[in-house]
Write a structure and sequence with these properties.
CATH class: Mainly Alpha
Strand content: under 5%
Order of helices and strands: EHHEHHHHHHHHH
Radius of gyration: 18 Å
CATH architecture: Up-down Bundle
Strand order of the largest sheet: 1-2
CATH topology: Ferritin
Number of strands: 2
Number of helices: 11
CATH superfamily: Ferritin, core subunit, four-helix bundle
Number of domains: 1
Shape: globular
């Protein structure tokens, strides 16, 4: 008897225990690879206002996060913790995309399952490194901006693909090289090694967002450049931040015209 994919995705998404969430994610990967899923749309997706997460970290507004110097032990750990938190959120974001949006080609669900598997690995790598520094996930406050945008785009796969992978997660393609340089300066070469793996994989994750964004645009007969601009204006009131890593964004499925749109929006903040 096959396992229902959407039930499995839901169970992964709402599980609050980190170890169980990662174990379920890897079990889902095994089931996928052995062809043991069915895709019967038994129940409509629920709106999940809060994905499964542990009690800590404490979630606060971004403006309430304390800035710490990277040259201090706490500042160093706080930076790693911030990335660990992003990777944990990314597991939930991948599962939410796989669970929420129905009636798409089977490859869509395979893509976001694979993203969840890779994000789980990223989380484990960086959490282990954080523990080697004498801290753990939950020791610092964090913000919930990524998940809040997921809730805001829960009603439309086009909005989700445009804004979460192609704007919020793509920001990592812009800033990670500078982050690696800063970590080199304090001789944290292990973190740099981990970030190289994450950076390579994140290009693929953003590329999947680009792939399905353009797929849905084509199916709906929409101009992808116009709708991308409209969605950013509608949902991202605070605007976009420079710089953009143009070369890497092109590898991740952005068109030159889309990058021009991003520059225009950022320069008109």
């Amino acid at each position: 008897m096959k396992t229902n994919f959407f039930e499995m995705a839901y169970n992964c998404l709402i599980n609050q225990d980190i170890t169980q969430k990662i174990t379920l994610t890897r079990e889902a990967d095994r089931l996928w690879k052995s062809g043991q899923f069915d895709f019967d749309d038994l129940e409509p997706p629920q709106l999940i206002l809060s994905a499964g997460r542990p009690e800590k970290p404490l979630l606060v507004s971004p403006k309430h996060l304390i800035s710490r110097k990277l040259t201090t032990k706490e500042g160093h750990a706080a930076l790693i913790h911030a990335i660990v938190h992003i990777e944990f959120n990314a597991i939930n974001l991948a599962w939410d995309a796989a669970y929420r949006f129905r009636g798409l080609p089977v490859d869509f669900y395979g893509d976001w399952l694979q993203v969840a598997v890779e994000e789980a690995l990223h989380f484990e790598l960086l959490r282990g490194h954080l523990q080697s520094l004498g801290f753990d996930y939950g020791d610092f406050p964090a913000h919930n901006g990524l998940w809040e945008l997921a809730v805001e785009t829960a009603d439309d796969v086009l909005s989700r693909m445009a804004l979460v992978p192609r704007v919020m997660e793509a920001r990592g393609l812009d800033v990670t090289p500078q982050m690696m340089e800063k970590l080199k300066q304090i001789n944290d070469l292990k973190a740099v090694e981990h970030l190289k793996i994450i950076y390579r994989d994140e290009i693929g994750h953003v590329s999947r967002g680009s792939k399905w964004f353009h797929y849905v645009c084509e199916k709906r007969g929409l101009n992808s450049k116009e709708i991308f601009l409209d969605l950013i204006r509608k949902h991202l009131k605070s605007g976009l931040k420079l710089p953009f890593n143009q070369e890497i964004r092109l590898q991740a499925g952005f068109t030159p015209e889309e990058i021009s749109i991003l520059y225009a929006l950022a320069n008109n903040r």
